[in-house]
Prior knowledge:
The protein is of the alpha+beta class. The protein is 35% helix and 20% strand. The protein has a seven-stranded antiparallel β-sheet, sandwiched between helices. A five-stranded antiparallel β-sheet has the order 5-6-10-8-9. A four-stranded mixed β-sheet has the order 1-2-4-3, with helices on one face.
Amino acid sequence: MRPGELAQRLRAVLPTDAVLDDRDLVQAYRHDEAQQVAGGTPAAVALPRSTEDVVAALRISHELGVPVVPRGAGTGLSGGAAAVDGCLVVCTTRMAQITEINVAEQYAVVQPGVITADLDAAAAAVGLWYPPDPSSWRDCTIGGNVATDAGGLCCVRYGTTSDHVLGLEVVLADGRVLRTGRRTAKGVAGYDLTRLVVGSEGTLGVITSAVLRLRPRRPAPATVIAVFPTLTAAGGAVLALVGAGLTICLLEIMDRTTIRAVEDLGQMGLDTDAAAVLVVQTERPDDSEDVQRLCLSQDAGEVHATADAAESELLLQARRLALPALQSKGSVLLDDVAVPRSALPALIEAVERVAHETGLTIGTFGHAGDGNLHPTIVFDRADPAQRAAAQVGFDGVVAAALELGGTITGEHGVGRLKVDWLTRELDDVALQVSRDVKAALDPRGLMNPGAVLGA
């Protein structure tokens, strides 16, 4: 391929402002929020507005043998949107139309560049709700959410993005358009190709449209915050709450390191001597009484509850401040692992051991209700020794999760950050079947090369 040929070919079929190839401009598309994954320099960036634009771009890249890296808002945390040298980045943020909200059938049809919070606001206007709520929901896009099977605070009751995707439109590597799924409440015809694409992290194609399940708008939840003197007590409370049959729609945890960071930043009057804090929300206000009782039965030292929406949001703000509070202490390396809920105390204790061994601060917070935690390593990026120690600590946390019967990623995805770890989690047959699927849909290996399954 001649220098500039890709951009020249793209400008012949796309609007002029939809193609970038200036070296300074394409720098902004080199990596996502996983800063430790060094991105390459794209040969060009395409900013399509329609499925037809994506088809045209992928046909050209396929003809020229150019790798393609699909990208949304760039809020991913696993390096899945990191560019490779000489690639075409297909950024779908300009495909931001909500094309349909069907109130009777309770679904929405959206382009991939729709911001998650904007979809929820549009659903709310007609009395409906889109439950998936990643922490970056005010910035992240539906296409990225689908590509990574993003989670969020409500997963304990409502599941992840995959539980809300009814159908997809996907442009494959050679420009063919694959349509999957349905718009009916039920449907089991053929292989579940929708589920295959959800969570595939751009390695099988570019998502250009999604049919998403909506739910009736829920009432304002009641909120309980409980303080525990030991990790064992907090873990016992999690198991008791999950097994009690209550309408729990949020069950979050913060460890002592995170509590202290949040208190330093937010001055919220948190108990900085506590081993852990649980934040719990229930859909029925009466259930909050049972939550308080169960927490106290597991040796909670302090419990506070409210059904007031404003006060609930204030209590939840402590959890929302977890990552910003740790980021205020230095550079961070955010992990994402999940274990059986019974293993939560053991995982947090393992994280504390890793922190002691590396000499670094690691704060742990996350979604206790589904066993998904985010140990966050704080370090000085300018110090090579601390950068190396941070990577050792990151790997130690992932290894601990696997040893406890868990998984290397609960919601952020494998991306490029955890490719080597995937080979440890999956057996040989699962890996080979995954590679066979990839080869069937992308025989030239052009879609997001190096992500998920590696080279």
